[in-house]
Design goal:
The protein is an all-alpha fold. 84% of the residues lie in helices and 0% in strands. Helix 2 runs antiparallel to helix 3, helix 2 packs across helix 4 and helix 4 packs antiparallel against helix 5.
Length: 108
């Protein structure tokens, strides 16, 4: 009986390590999006989500963080897709502001 309890404790610890340490917040958000929308968790849409978040993390970390938080709280596919649209809008707005700032500096 003690061996069974020890095995269950080790299995729970391994699962917790996987969920909270190994799986990044970006991956959790994309997997939750895939789950809500019925996408294949290992499919192209999920991989595209991960790639997009990784590449945008340096450009606009705030928008990526907002997407992760919003998607984690979403209860439906439409809600999760709304989170993605809002994050994309935030990233686009940031890019336009950066462009105009750079243009203004060079036009002086």
């Amino acid at each position: 009986m003690k061996k069974l309890v020890a095995i269950l404790v080790l299995a729970a610890a391994a699962y917790a390590a996987y969920v909270f340490v190994i799986r990044t917040p970006e991956k959790q958000a994309c997997l939750h999006l895939a789950d809500l929308c019925g996408f294949d968790p290992k499919g192209g849409d999920t991989q595209q989500c991960l790639g997009t978040l990784d590449s945008l993390k340096t450009a606009n970390a705030t928008a990526v963080t907002d997407f992760i938080t919003c998607t984690g709280e979403a209860k439906s596919c439409a809600g999760a897709l709304g989170c993605a649209s809002g994050a994309a809008l935030g990233i686009g707005t940031s890019a336009v502001k950066d462009f105009l700032s750079g243009f203004g500096k060079s036009a002086k």
